[in-house]
Amino acid sequence: MAAAATQGREIVLLMGPPGAGKGTQASRLAAERGLTKLSTGDMLRDHVARGTELGQRAQAFMDAGDLVPDDVIIGMVSATFEEAPAMRFLLDGFPRTPGQAAALDALLAEHGARITAAIVLDVDDEELVRRLLGRAEEEGRSDDSEDVIRNRMDVYRRQTQPLLDYYDGQRSLRRVDGSGDMETITARMRDVLEAMEDGSSHGRDGASPPGSPMGNP
Ligand code: AMP
User: Fold this and answer.
1) Per-residue pLDDT at 150
2) Against a cut of 0.70, is the pTM above it?
């Protein structure tokens, strides 16, 4: 297990609704597997804090809980891949639209990599709102007011959730119960990735031909 975690390409997607705990789990799992965590939300917040042109363009979308346009996001991810050609990434909060999923497939193909697993953290709605409101108090994020939270959940359902079918069709989707304590959730994700490693050594590799993400990119 330790050897596998330090060599070879590995692209893990971490998906799930806002408040599912993606950020925390992404950091833990990335550290444990020697992956670079690529969080588009963190990158955008950094741009906003630094007042860059990209940050200025993104801020209104973020404050409203809407998605930042695909071209902005895809440009950021593409630049990060160029900087780290080892292609060992944990993607937190990307892709979120069919257009982003299509762009990711193209970028990975360019770099000779493919998706190892798309992990979805499942948490029920009431628990999500409770967690997000708690976080609003602790962190003071400007997009954690109740209205904005509801919009972000709606946006997730309409624009991102359909991608789960796409990854399911590629046989890379794995659902993980996102309730319980932090360690337990990390352990569930670890088990999923180890099971995929075992599976790929028995001929699952390449089992699913790349299709096109649903909808019009
Ligand atoms: P997050 O921290 O991942 O919840 O992201 C915070 C906000 O950043 C989101 O509500 C969006 O406005 C924006 N954002 C982050 N990642 C993406 C993405 N992949 N596509 C579009 N917008 C994004």
Assistant:
1) 87
2) yes
